[in-house]
Fold:
Amino acid sequence: MNHFSELPIVAFDQNTPTECVAFDHAGYPIPTFLSVMSDARWWASIASRDERKAYALAAFEALAISDQSAFLEYVQGSAGT
Structure:
């Protein structure tokens, strides 16, 4: 039996990794070599909602208190614009 025939048919572009389509998640972020922010945005664009929430919280918790405060100030200021 071909197990891939049981996968739902989904639309995706050629830049979407096959495993993201097959398993509905992006997996862990890959190491970055050029632009950390660009790579992070790319990963977030293919990650599931649960992955984005989990990695966002884990990354926030790993920040120094001063960086947490600066981050909160940034996102709270962005929310109003």
